[in-house]
User: Which sequence fits this backbone?
């Protein structure tokens, strides 16, 4: 048994798997997680069975966080079938800052991780232009 929240990443293609591998490059090997990638030729029933088998392999005693790529897509629609209790949450908008945040905070309780994810998502999004790098003083948000 692990004392971390279980994590399931689901996406179109190999994005979920690659996002987790990228996170591991930055913060080290992770445990108690699975990934599911969905391709256009996949059978939805087989995907659901794969998802269920992977979820069953996780230690969910501290909860389950599911990260999916886009709301309304097949990964999110399939993952929604797992929302059967208050210890499972689903977050769409999978990106590397979210994966890093949840991995670094999986020892916290589920409610605290949810708050942390909301902040990570907001802080992980910026739009920069050339004027951001011209003539200004460098600060912690410099490119």
Assistant:
């Amino acid at each position: 048994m692990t004392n971390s929240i279980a994590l399931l990443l689901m996406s179109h293609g190999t994005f979920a798997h690659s996002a987790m591998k990228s996170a591991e490059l930055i913060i080290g090997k992770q445990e108690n997680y699975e990934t599911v990638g969905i391709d256009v030729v996949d059978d939805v029933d087989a995907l659901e069975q794969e998802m269920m088998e992977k979820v069953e392999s996780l230690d969910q005693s501290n909860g389950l966080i599911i990260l999916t790529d886009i709301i309304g897509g097949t990964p999110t629609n399939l993952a929604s079938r797992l929302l059967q209790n208050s210890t499972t949450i689903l977050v769409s908008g999978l990106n590397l800052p979210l994966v890093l945040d949840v991995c670094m905070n999986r020892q916290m309780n589920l409610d605290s991780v949810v708050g942390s994810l909301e902040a990570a998502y907001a802080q992980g999004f910026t739009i920069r232009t050339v004027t951001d790098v011209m003539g200004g003083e460098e600060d912690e948000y410099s490119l």
About this structure: The beta strands are 6-12, 33-38, 64-68, 88-92. The chain is about 40% helix and 15% strand. The two ends are 41 Å apart (CA to CA). The longest strand covers residues 6-12.
